[in-house]
Amino acid sequence: MFSEIDIELHKIACPYQECLSHKPGGKRHIIWWHKKKGVHKCQICKRTFTRETNTFFSGKKHSPATIIEVLLLLAEGMSVRGLSRVKGIKPETIIRWRREAAEHLEELEDYLVTDLELEQVQIDELWTFLKKMSAKDHARNQKKS
Predict the structure, then answer these.
(1) Which positions ≥6 away from 133 have C-beta within 8 Å?
(2) CA distances from 54 to 51, 69, 139 (A)
(3) DSSP code of 63?
């Protein structure tokens, strides 16, 4: 019988497209590489990865929870400069997260629902805000061109 961790690992696919374990429905060969850091290893391609690999969160210095918190506070009306002061994050970084989040709405929704257990109303508010800001950014870029 599988334990909860085994079942979780059984569902994880290798994020690297060239790996045989990447294909949906294929046999999974994923093991824990470093449990405290949440790092897995594919036994086929021998590469390590985290849950955030090849997602909106990969390559970011801040945790997914911090990024989502900042985005939710932006949606609630807090200013970029205010968030920058309170969180100690550069304003340019916050603006970049907002722009990137608008491009990855569907991907973020899975994280918000499953990991943070947000209610649909909160998610809808965030999406409305991000779409509105994305439209403003797009209009601003069109004027510059």
Answers:
(1) 74, 98, 99, 102
(2) 9, 21, 29
(3) -
Distances (CA, A) of 135 to 26, 102, 142: 39, 9, 11
Spans of all domains in the chain? 4-50, 64-144
How many residues appear in the chain? 145
Query: What is the predicted pLDDT for the residue at 16?
Result: 80
**3-class SS of residue 41:** strand
Give the Å distances, CA to CA, from 22 to 25, 66, 84.
Answer: 9, 29, 38
Q: Which residues of the chain have pLDDT under 70?
A: 1-11, 23-28, 54, 109-121, 123, 134-145
Q: What is the pLDDT of residues 64-80, one digit of tens each?
A: 889 988 988 888 889 99
The dihedral through the CA atoms of 114, 119, 125, 128 has a sign that is positive
